[in-house]
DNA sequence: GTCAAGAAAATTGTCTTACAATCTTGCAAT
DNA sequence: ATTGCAAGATTGTAAGACAATTTTCTTGAC
């Protein structure tokens, strides 16, 4: 065989499914931040055994999507503003680079997909479907990250964004944020399409800083 | 109570101990890259039960320190040079920023500690103790990362460095690498001590690029 | 009524056992 | 040499059990 292509179709295991299910539940805000989870309850709700659940919980804890204190069980992290800021700062370091690299290497086909996702977000932004706003934004970014040429960067970025998913959905519901976000994302797209790395980096940086201040505003009004 | 200090002394659980033990074993090269681990063997070697081991394995898999393919069990990742490069690139994005931030905010006490760790590395570099070279280097960096003012940056950086620990120890054994590394680290220290952010970032960037090419050389000669 | 101390209940940490599903290995047949 | 299949090994998952710890509840003192 000339190359080592991975044809394996990963069989879905109970523990993997559980990780995905719980991850989605956390993203969607199904659990209150700070609330504690009880193993036995989760087991019956998910219809799985305790060992399987506990394995899933270890995975989520390693991803920092849940806190896991010995003898106290799992709980949903209650992020402080300092932590959220720290995450946004690291995200900036990575995302600016990802956008810059993407501008230099994205293919025409992928650029078209990026444009499509931007159009999709445009529709979502003018509607009131807050879920659609999130998913379309994620599509936009995942295309950029997938084309930055660095899978590790992609992976770390995904992990960081996951940890602040709640704040993102809240701030995206803020009055006018979606419209501003759209303009910023258009600027990023234009710069990438033009292959202008510097402009792409600048547009990306601006976008993140605005997203961060929107998240701060959302966090203050919420509480 | 005036403040919410965390007095909890986290009780060490079997699963935590196992994660640490296995992590150390992986770092020290106890397992051949690409080799497969067998649950039952690990259980008897570690003297623990299979559920505990499996929980530990999930944590390590989430940290990407082991691969975990369903129905095939855990194995030590066999990193390709592309992956190692990708990790070094992301490490550069983060570390350069960490060093720059550190130069602007480190305290005098911590700066002294940093100098001490540099001296310690100097000794280790002139000796033949390759283990000491690694640990003193880690001390040096952990002080910098601890003083960059961003715990997330610290955490992500640690995770990345962990994944390439084997390459680091190999490249540090390379003829002359320790001496060069010392000069580069001195430059970083000087810039931080002088509070010169730009110089600190430049020195940091140079150091990482050199470390990367040393790792590449080590990887080619090894195989 | 409030608070503290102790008892009861709930929850987690860990192990053992069990078995189905899947993978690997060895051997026979082509 | 390759294919096919059976036997053995390994992983995925569940259930049950019990000690250690935390939480909740009760009781008693002030």
Give structural notes.
Two copies of one chain form a homodimer. By secondary structure, the first copy, chain A, is mostly helical. Chain A has ten helices and two strands. Chain A has helices spanning 14-27, 39-46, 50-62, 81-105, 108-126, 130-146, 151-163, 165-172, 177-194, 197-222; strands at 67-69, 73-75. Chain A has a two-stranded antiparallel sheet. The longest helix of chain A is centred in the C-terminal third of the chain and has 26 residues, at 197-222. Chain A is globular. Residues 1-7 of chain A have low confidence and may be disordered. The A-B interface holds A 8, 10-13, 15-16, 51, 54-56, 58-59, 61-63, 69-71, 83, 86-87, 89-90, 93-94, 97, 150-153, 156, 160 and B 8, 10-13, 15-16, 51, 54-56, 58-59, 61-63, 69-71, 83, 86-87, 89-90, 93-94, 97, 150-153, 156, 160. The first copy, chain A, binds a DNA duplex (30 and 30 nucleotides) through helix 3.
Our count of helices of chain A gives 10
Instruction: Note the run of SSEs of chain A as H and E.
Output: HHHEEHHHHHHH
Oligomer: homodimer
Distance between the termini of chain A: 58 Å
Radius of gyration of chain A: 19 Å
Number of strands of chain A: 2
């Amino acid at each position: 065989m000339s190359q080592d292509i991975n044809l394996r179709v990963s069989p879905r295991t109970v523990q993997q499914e559980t990780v995905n299910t719980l991850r989605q539940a956390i993203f969607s805000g199904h659990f209150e931040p700070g609330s504690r989870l009880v193993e036995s309850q989760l087991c019956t709700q998910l219809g799985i055994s305790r060992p399987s659940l506990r394995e899933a919980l270890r995975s989520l804890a390693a991803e920092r999507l849940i806190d896991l204190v010995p003898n106290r069980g799992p709980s949903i992290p209650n992020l402080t503003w300092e932590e959220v800021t720290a995450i946004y700062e690291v995200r900036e370091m990575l995302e600016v680079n990802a956008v810059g690299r993407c501008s230099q290497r994205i293919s025409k086909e992928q650029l078209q997909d990026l444009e499509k996702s931007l159009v999709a977000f445009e529709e979502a932004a003018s509607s009131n479907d807050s879920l659609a706003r999130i998913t379309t934004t994620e599509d936009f970014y995942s295309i950029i990250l997938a084309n930055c040429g660095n899978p590790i960067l992609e992976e770390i970025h995904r992990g960081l964004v996951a940890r602040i998913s709640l704040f993102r959905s809240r701030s995206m519901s803020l009055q006018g944020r979606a419209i501003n976000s759209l303009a910023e994302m258009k600027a990023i797209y234009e710069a990438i399409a033009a292959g202008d790395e510097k402009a792409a980096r600048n547009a990306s940086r601006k976008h993140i800083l605005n997203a961060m201040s929107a998240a701060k505003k959302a966090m203050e009004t919420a509480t």
